[in-house]
Amino acid sequence: MAQKKVHCDCLEIIRPVRDTLDVINGKWKIPIIISIGVGNDRFTDIQESIPGISPKVLAKELKDLEQHKLVRRVVIEEYPVKISYQLEEYADTLTPVIYALKDWGINHKKKVLE
Fold this sequence. Notes:
The structure is a single chain. This protein is mainly alpha-helical. The chain is built from five helices and two strands; from the N terminus they run ααααββα. It has a two-stranded antiparallel ribbon with strand order 1-2. Keywords: DNA-binding, Transcription, Transcription regulation.
């Protein structure tokens, strides 16, 4: 019986972590969120701030982030029409996660280089 409880406790952790990783996983999503968060709101500015990302990949990732309610695409009706990207308020909930990943990465690098 205790074995089954441990299994359930494990799944209660694994499932939400997996759900989180399904949203922010990959090479580009966190860098895009960070880029927009520091003020890069135009497509080309975001692309230039993230070395190695292609326009096709950036467009796909922005659409994914829009679907997950983390980024909002804003059309500015001027001539010429301008598009900007802004973080949704909900994206602020990722701030502690991003800083925790940053801190872990710094500490891990130190540990590996010891």
